[in-house]
Structure formats: C-alpha cells, structure tokens
C-alpha cells in the first residue's frame, strides 16, 4: 500500500466563539432550566493546516484564517462571532511555513476541505504560484455562484479569481497515501482527508465534518452551522466506518483540547 512520507500539523492559533456554534448538546451548550441564567460559554476554536509530503509532491490541506481577518470579515459580521483573536504573527500560516522551511513555491497542491472563511482565508497566497488549487466540484459550484459577496461563512474575496481544479466523489490515492473523502453536511462540498503513514499508520483529518471529539460521540452531536443535517449525520457515520475498518487516528476540525495533544509544527511531525 502506498504511503505518504511525512505529515506536519500546522497550528495557526485560535478563534473564539460561543460554544453553541460548534456543539448542540444537552447539558453542554444547551442548558437545563437550573442554569437558564448562566452566562454563555465562549471557547477557543483552534485552526490548523496540514502539510503532507509524498514522493509525488507536497500537499497543503486548508489555509486557515487571514492576518487581516478583522477588515476582511467586516462586511459579513463574522468577526464579532468568531474573532481570530488568539493568534499572534508567528502563528499565521505564512509565518508557520517559514518556521518549517517550506516556501510557497515548494507546495504542489493546496486542497481545501471547503471554502469557509477560516479554511480558505489564505488561499490567495498561492495565486501566483505553481500550486494546483483543489476543492470538491459541489463546493466550487456553490461558492462561486451565489449572489453577493458572501453567503454565511463563504466569502468570495477569499477564493475568487483563483484557478480551481475539482474532484468528484471519494478519491483514493490522490497522492501516494493521501485519499480525499466526501463528507458533505457542514457545507454542500465539505471533504475530509485520510493520510496513510509508514510508522504512524492512518490519520483522518475530518475538517468541519466533525468539529471536536464531543461532536463525534457516539452519539454524534451536530452544530449550529450545518447546511444539511441528514448529510451531516451520514458523513459522521461514514467516517466512523472508515475509522473502525482502518484503526485511523481521528483529527477533528476545531478541538481545543486535541490540538495540544498532537505533534505540531514547528517542532513535531509524523512519519
């Protein structure tokens, strides 16, 4: 079986937000009457990218939030609900890539799990590079064709004007050891990624198909930001089936505890 050669989880600081955006769970974000006057829980919402190195090139999974988030998001109001206020200059994507010694010209593929503002926020960094920009066909169709400049967390300024290539359906061995998994629900074209490594074994990066361990369950607990709830539940169980079959380590999209348990850039990596 083909495997990737190295994987680096790139932590890019955190947004903060009301927990209810991420988790609709009785007793956690949904309070009982005894706590109806309790304050809302604002939590860290970490954001990360992943660099996968293979014999056929380097792949960057997602691009995190932009440094100019406050100005970029101002037309949408999202900066008031998801402020990217727990990230310093050394945690922005370009700084992180510099820290691990990877130039933009060394990245062959930039694969976007979906085109929300906190995943496609730095896509324009690759506009004048040789990197192939990749997302799902359904995500591209929606994200580039709604009326206006933004729709929910899709912000056209993040990704329009780029030359997008698309994939349709699940793609095994997109690169050696790298498979793309269609997991719609959060958005119409949300994808997850499985990476098979010689020593660490399979790792699945769920992106926002599963926000955190509390979302995964079982039973799965959805979030306030779901495009299609039926698809969302189906995608979670699809991922669970793959995990049960492969024994893969699950890396969730925005888990505030898990990010600190991983080997992360600039010091750590997986092989």
How are the SSEs ordered, and which strands pair?
Elements lengths: L5 E13 L23 E13 L2 E5 L7 H5 L4 H4 L11 H7 L9 E3 L20 E5 H7 L6 E2 L2 E2 L8 E4 L3 E5 L2 E5 L8 E7 L3 E7 L5 H4 L12 H18 L2 E4 L19
Parallel strand pairs: 3-4, 4-5, 5-8, 12-13
Antiparallel strand pairs: 1-2, 2-3, 6-7, 9-10, 10-11, 11-12
InterPro entries: MBL_superfamily_lactonases, Metallo-B-lactamas, RibonucZ/Hydroxyglut_hydro
Keywords: Hydrolase, Metal-binding, Zinc
Organism: Pseudonocardia ailaonensis
Q: Give the termini distance in whole angstroms.
A: 15 Å
CA radius of gyration: 18 Å
Helix content: 10-25%
Please mark out the parts with pLDDT under 50 across 5 or more consecutive residues, or reply none.
none
Q: How many extended strands? A: 13
What is the approximate shape? globular
Structural class: alpha/beta
Roughly what fraction of the amino acids lie in strands?
25-35%
Instruction: Outline the biggest β-sheet.
Output: 6 strands, mixed
Task: Tell me the strand order in the biggest sheet.
Answer: 1-2-3-4-5-8
Instruction: List the secondary-structure elements in sequence, H or E.
Output: EEEHHHEEHEEEEEEEHHE
Provide the residue-averaged pLDDT: 97
Number of helices: 6
Family: Belongs to the metallo-beta-lactamase superfamily.
Cofactor: Zn(2+)
Keywords: Hydrolase, Metal-binding, Zinc
Organism: Pseudonocardia ailaonensis
């Amino acid at each position: 079986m083909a495997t990737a050669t190295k994987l680096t989880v790139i932590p890019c600081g955190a947004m903060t937000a009301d927990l209810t955006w991420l988790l609709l769970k009785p007793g956690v974000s949904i309070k009982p009457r005894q706590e109806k006057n309790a304050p809302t829980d604002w939590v860290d919402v970490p954001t990360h990218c992943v660099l996968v190195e293979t014999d056929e090139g380097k792949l960057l999974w997602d691009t995190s939030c932009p440094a100019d988030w406050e100005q970029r998001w101002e037309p949408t109001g999202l900066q008031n609900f998801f402020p990217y206020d727990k990230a310093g200059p050394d945690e922005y994507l370009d700084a992180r890539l510099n820290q691990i010694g990877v130039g933009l010209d060394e990245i062959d593929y930039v694969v976007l799990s979906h085109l929300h503002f906190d995943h496609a926020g730095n896509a324009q960094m690759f506009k004048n590079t040789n990197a192939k920009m990749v997302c799902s066909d359904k995500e591209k169709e929606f994200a580039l064709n709604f009326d206006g400049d933004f729709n929910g967390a899709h912000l056209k300024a993040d990704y329009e004007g780029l030359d997008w290539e698309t994939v349709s359906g699940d793609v095994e061995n997109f690169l050696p050891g790298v498979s793309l998994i269609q997991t719609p629900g959060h958005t119409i074209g949300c994808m997850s990624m499985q990476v098979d490594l010689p020593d660490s074994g399979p790792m699945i990066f769920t992106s926002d198909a599963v926000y955190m361990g509390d979302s995964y369950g079982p039973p799965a607990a959805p979030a306030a930001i779901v495009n299609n709830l039926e698809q969302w539940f189906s995608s979670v169980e699809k991922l669970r089936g793959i995990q049960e079959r492969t024994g893969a380590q699950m890396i969730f999209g925005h888990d505030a505890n898990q990010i600190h348990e991983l080997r992360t850039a600039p010091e750590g990596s997986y092989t």
